[in-house]
């Protein structure tokens, strides 16, 4: 036998029994985003590598270690996108979308060659939001309120919000100097990754999860102490807005981003139910990125949420387990007419999820497949039913007798959760 080919490590198939949870999340997210006036943008999976080097930075782990980059046959240096913001900014500049404020959202796969573990994969999926052209704390508040509404739509109540301000570039530069000086005084206590980041990306040291580093991090200078009046007012206004909206949050002065284009607001939604990979949504303001990628200076704010991590948190009952009905056909003539009847039923009941049996088989084997499908009822079409314009309706999820009903009465019957026949259906059954 030929050797089996398996999926690449860290890249997973979404199987038919799993996809309803993905669809549930995507549908709820789209509905919430449309209510807030956000329009969808779809960007390519492959971009020129320079886009991510200029946006993320050449001395970051993503670019140095994790990005899938390659030279194509034409000699161009390309990369699978490791995140969505840079692509959205590139598209907004390229297509001249920044003449007025834009609220956009995106979804799709991202790629990073990390060590696969729970909640961290080499192909992972994000849903993200980007707002261009608005610089006030009110839009920062809006994107956070939007995420809260999404958690409500998904039935998630086990998330907490952490918040910080990175200030503006000059404030962060002064903080960086103070932080480097502090870390140099504690250099012997730094783990290997923090020692490498000391001069290239010192704010990322505050992200370290190494247990021996926590005391050093806790005693480090706070960026909030370096904020000027304008940045402090922006942050205080945002916090007051969250209080007024009833959103609980915790100010975390160690919450940072390692990229220079971030400024002022940064936030994360975190759960304790996923172990070490507990951040399910991260966002912030990045007023410097548009200019960094060749556009005119444009304020911007956004977030990205991890689809796989959120799916793990969804309740098992969040999706419908199967079709509404499974059509069983008994006898050669009934089997020949089954697909045509199924089409007529779908025409008359636009919302009906109907699975029609194909491939023949005995009545018993068809009923077994109907039960395994997860359908609420089996619809039984035999030679007698075909002649009389009726159909049998047999509940599959609870005990109950099979009822004979007129096909015209099926919509009203299937709309009832208990599938008990209506008086009209009983009357039709009695007459026949």
UniProtKB/TrEMBL annotation:
Its main location: cytoplasm. It catalyses: tRNA(His) + L-histidine + ATP = L-histidyl-tRNA(His) + AMP + diphosphate + H(+). It is found in: Cytoplasm. Keywords: Aminoacyl-tRNA synthetase, ATP-binding, Cytoplasm, Ligase, Nucleotide-binding, Protein biosynthesis. GO terms for cellular component: cytoplasm. GO terms for molecular function: ATP binding; histidine-tRNA ligase activity. One of its GO terms (biological process) is histidyl-tRNA aminoacylation. Transmembrane segments: none annotated. Residues 1-314 form the Aminoacyl-transfer RNA synthetases class-II family profile domain. It comes from the Bacteria. Its EC number is 6.1.1.21. It holds the Pfam family tRNA-synt_His. Gene3D superfamilies: Anticodon-binding domain, Bira Bifunctional Protein, Domain 2. L-histidine binds at residues 83-85, 112, 126, 130, 257, 261-262. The keyword Zinc does not apply. Belongs to the class-II aminoacyl-tRNA synthetase family. Homodimer. This is Histidine--tRNA ligase. It comes from Thiohalocapsa marina.
């Amino acid at each position: 036998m030929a050797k089996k080919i398996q999926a690449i490590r860290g890249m997973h198939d979404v199987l038919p029994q799993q996809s309803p949870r993905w669809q549930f999340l995507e549908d709820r997210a789209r509905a919430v985003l449309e209510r807030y006036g956000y329009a969808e943008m779809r960007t390519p999976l492959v971009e020129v590598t320079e886009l991510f080097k200029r946006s993320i930075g050449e001395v970051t782990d993503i670019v140095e270690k994790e990005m899938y980059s390659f030279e194509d046959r034409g000699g161009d240096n390309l990369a699978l996108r490791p995140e969505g913001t840079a692509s959205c900014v590139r598209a907004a500049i390229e297509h001249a979308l920044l003449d007025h404020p834009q609220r956009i959202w995106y979804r799709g796969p991202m790629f990073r060659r990390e060590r696969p573990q729970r909640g961290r994969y080499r192909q992972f999926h994000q849903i993200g939001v980007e707002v261009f052209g608005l610089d006030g704390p009110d839009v920062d508040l809006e994107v956070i309120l939007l995420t809260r509404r999404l958690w409500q739509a998904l039935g998630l109540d086990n998330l907490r919000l952490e918040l910080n301000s990175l200030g503006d570039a000059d404030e962060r530069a002064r903080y960086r100097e103070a932080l480097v000086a502090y870390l140099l005084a504690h250099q012997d206590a730094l783990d290997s990754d923090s020692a490498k980041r000391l001069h290239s990306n010192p704010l990322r040291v505050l992200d370290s999860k190494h247990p021996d580093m926590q005391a050093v991090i806790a005693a480090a200078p706070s960026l909030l102490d370096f904020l000027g009046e304008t940045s402090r007012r922006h942050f205080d206004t945002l916090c007051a807005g969250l209080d007024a909206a009833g959103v609980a949050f915790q100010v975390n002065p160690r919450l940072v981003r390692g990229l220079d284009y971030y400024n002022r607001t940064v936030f994360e939604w975190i759960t304790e139910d996923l172990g070490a990979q507990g951040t399910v949504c991260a966002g912030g303001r990045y007023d410097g990125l548009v200019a960094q990628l060749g556009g005119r200076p444009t304020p911007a704010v956004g977030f990205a949420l991890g689809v796989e991590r959120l799916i793990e948190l969804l309740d098992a009952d969040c999706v419908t387990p199967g079709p509404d009905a499974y059509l069983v056909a008994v006898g050669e003539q009934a089997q020949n007419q089954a697909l045509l009847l199924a089409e007529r039923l779908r025409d008359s009941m636009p919302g009906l999820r109907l699975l029609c049996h194909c491939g023949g088989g005995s009545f018993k084997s068809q009923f077994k497949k109907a039960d395994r499908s997860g359908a609420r009822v089996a619809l039984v079409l035999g030679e007698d039913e075909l002649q009389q314009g009726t159909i049998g309706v047999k509940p599959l999820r609870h005990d109950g007798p099979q009822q004979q009903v007129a096909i015209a009465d099926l919509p009203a019957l299937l709309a009832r959760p208990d599938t008990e026949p209506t008086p009209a259906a009983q009357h039709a059954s009695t007459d026949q």
